[in-house]
Design a protein that fits this description.
Pfam families: Lipase_GDSL. GO terms for molecular function: hydrolase activity, acting on ester bonds. Keywords: Glycoprotein, Hydrolase, Membrane, Signal, Transmembrane, Transmembrane helix. This is GDSL esterase/lipase At1g28570-like. Belongs to the 'GDSL' lipolytic enzyme family. The protein is an alpha/beta fold. The chain has a single domain, classed as Rossmann fold (3-Layer(aba) Sandwich), CATH 3.40.50. It is about 35% helix and about 10% strand. The protein is built from 15 helices and 13 strands. The chain has a six-stranded mixed sheet with strand order 5-4-6-7-8-13. It has a three-stranded antiparallel sheet with strand order 1-11-10, with no helix packed on it. A two-stranded antiparallel sheet has the order 2-3. A hairpin with a 2-residue loop joins strand 2 and strand 3. The protein starts with a strand and ends in a 12-residue tail after the last strand.
């Protein structure tokens, strides 16, 4: 184990926070051709012609043409921290530990605002369908060019729930300033963006040529309910509200012209180190004998996912022209917890990075990235990165399970035969 390097936010002389994130450098490169082993500059008129040939189709249509070997012109994603590529840290809460090392160390070699050591499921999805990794909309709204947003965007925000903050406040949970970007709020941001980019005649074409990832939603909803409820039955009673809200969001996208949507279920909550720590039981019968996960929390996940699939079945009947794909995150993750060695994992229920002293290496008082937290030597041997979120290694396995059809209904290949991982 390594000691996590604590890097406080830098402040300038006026005392205002300076972002630790630097925009990716766009390095101007001279174009050369090789002739007889030597290099010479291409004629600038030829370079100009090449650039025009590449860009003209985009400007004529108002929207990028489909990439070669890509089924979709764009990918738009909604959700919480399992999908957020940087909105929460870079636009809402810059002092979050997620904005400090060791986050991002595996793939990006720096923190990007993703709640992981590397890529998320949405990143593997984008790569598989031949699209760029999604820029976080809130974080780059004022800096990214319009053409960037025409290829996709991430509207997911950490700590978001399907339900809005008003819903939880009515139930008695007052301190919810960080749940303002519910599914409905994220969808409104998307509509505002697209209407600013795409003229009305081309709007539905844009929607029909794009892929939408709606979720996952539910993990935060149920964590809030767990802290409110007197017993688990009260939490179960919230499932219809959560799943119907997700269904309404999907209806809104279909009404706007969406034709291909991936809708994930929730992960097995009973296998998350943070909840295993917070709801620790002295009774052996409360745990699954094979995995060590908490039964009642996995039952909550199962009930949510079954109800969500019923909602999706109804939507498919109403909209047979739309491909609505259920992504079984629960099934893909459960396969890992049942057979961790098969996938190369050493400790499936222990966080790679955290400040806990118990078996799960999780403490709500010492987060990954905080002073005093420890980091494992090899994140690829761990399922959980920080006690809540997946490592890149686990995210890749979940993504493969969905994209290769084992944990998707219907198969993604039925809507996109050219994807590859």
């Amino acid at each position: 184990m390594r000691t996590a390097t604590y890097v406080p936010n830098k402040r300038n002389v006026q005392g205002t926070t300076t972002s630790i994130f630097q925009p990716d450098l766009l390095i101007p490169m001279t174009i050369f051709s090789a002739v007889g082993g030597s290099r010479r500059r291409l004629d600038c008129r030829l370079v100009f012609a090449i650039v025009i040939a590449i860009l003209l189709p985009c400007y004529c249509t108002g929207y990028p043409s489909l990439q070669r070997d890509s089924c979709f012109a764009a990918l738009y994603a909604f959700g919480d921290s399992y999908t957020d590529t940087g909105n929460f840290v870079r636009a809402i809460y810059p002092s979050s530990p997620i904005g400090r090392p060791p986050y991002g160390e595996t793939f990006f070699r720096r923190p990007t605002g993703r709640a992981s050591d590397g890529r998320l499921v949405v990143d593997f999805l984008a790569e598989a369908v031949g699209l760029p990794l999604l820029p976080p909309y809130l974080a780059e709204l004022s800096t990214a060019a319009a053409e960037v947003w025409r290829r996709g965007a991430c509207f997911a925000v950490g700590w978001s729930a399907a339900m809005d903050a008003a819903f939880f406040r009515e139930l008695g949970l007052k301190n919810l300033s960080w749940t303002g970007l519910s599914l409905a709020a994220q969808l409104q941001l998307f509509q505002d963006l697209q209407h600013s980019l795409t003229p009305e005649p081309g709007y539905r074409d844009m929607m029909s040529n794009s892929l939408f990832l709606v979720g996952e939603f539910g993990v935060n909803d149920y964590q809030y309910f767990l802290f409110l409820a007197k017993n688990v039955t009260d939490v179960y009673s919230a499932i219809p509200n959560v799943t119907s809200t997700i269904s309404m969001g999907i209806k809104d996208l279909i009404r706007l012209g969406a034709r291909t949507l991936i809708v994930p279920g929730v992960f097995p909550l009973g296998c998350l180190p943070n909840l295993l720590t917070l709801f620790k039981s002295e009774r052996n019968e409360d745990y699954e004998p094979r995995t060590g996960c908490l039964k009642f929390l996995n039952e909550l996940s199962t009930r949510h996912n079954l109800r969500l699939q019923e909602e999706l079945d109804r939507l498919r009947e109403l909209h047979p022209e739309v491909a609505i794909i259920y992504a079984d995150y629960y099934g893909a993750a459960t396969e890992i917890f049942n057979f961790p060695k098969k996938f190369g994992f050493k400790t499936p229920l222990t966080a790679c990075c955290g400040g806990g002293k118990g078996p799960y290496n999780y403490s709500p008082l010492v987060n990954c990235g905080d002073k005093g937290s420890k980091v494992c030597d090899d994140p690829s041997q761990y399922v959980s990165w920080d006690g809540i979120h997946l490592t890149e290694a686990a995210s890749e396995i979940v993504a493969r399970g969905v994209l290769e059809g084992l944990y998707a209904v219907p198969s993604v290949a039925e809507t996109c035969s050219s994807f590859s991982m």
